[in-house]
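Incident review: delayed structure delivery

Summary: a single-chain prediction request sat in the queue longer than the usual turnaround. Root cause was a stuck worker, restarted by the on-call engineer. No data loss occurred. The affected request and its eventual output are reproduced below so the record is complete for anyone auditing the incident later.

Affected input:
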Amino acid sequence: MIIKTEGIVIRALDYGEGSKIITLYTRDYGKISLMAKGAKKPKSRFHGITQLFSYGVYIFYMTSQMGTLNQGDLQLYFTDIYRDIEKTAYAAYLVELVDKLTEPKEKNSFLFEQLLAGLEQINSGKDPEVIARLFEMKILHVSGYKPHIQSCSICGNQEQLTGFSVSHGGLICNRHEQTKSIILQAGTVKLLKIFEYLELRRLGNIEVKDSTKSQLDAVMQAFFEEYVGIKCKSKGFIEQLKKF
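Output delivered after worker restart:
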């Protein structure tokens, strides 16, 4: 079966002397693996279209296992991401999350659009750490792991939310501060609430304090460890970058 669809390269592996196996996250068919023959060669017509993060229109022959790339039309090449190691690290984190939290051939056009928007926002110079936290919220929602954000996860109180309880899966109010939790600034609580509904294309030029970003990271990392149970190599690399 010949398929034509938009896709983003979320993984690329060298295969043999001149070929690649790429994993696309596509708008219409979800995650798909393709053999791109000769793609490693600099003069190959597949060279640009098979680079990590590349977004394009792909035509391929699909079987029950792995497809074969026939043609590709590059739509966006994220030049600024490739030029900046921090942007590259955060972009790698986004695509690794998609790779680890999606099953082959499960379509989700919303997640595709959020991934594309996230890469575009990073490439355009928006704060990649804020984009990563927002994308985490989107993919948790899609994957069925959404944290409880809009009210206290213990009693349902919508006021005076002051902490995040990993064991209860969400925010808690000041009535339960004795519960083991991550104590949060008001600004962190506000952003968590906003992130639950804000789509990545609507992210404006916001400035977030370093202390707030640290709290957002602590909350999301703790939640992922408790409920999702995946480890991303790119996240570890980001942590190493922060030390310099």
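Verification: The mean pLDDT is 94.
Action items: add queue-age alerting; document worker restart procedure.
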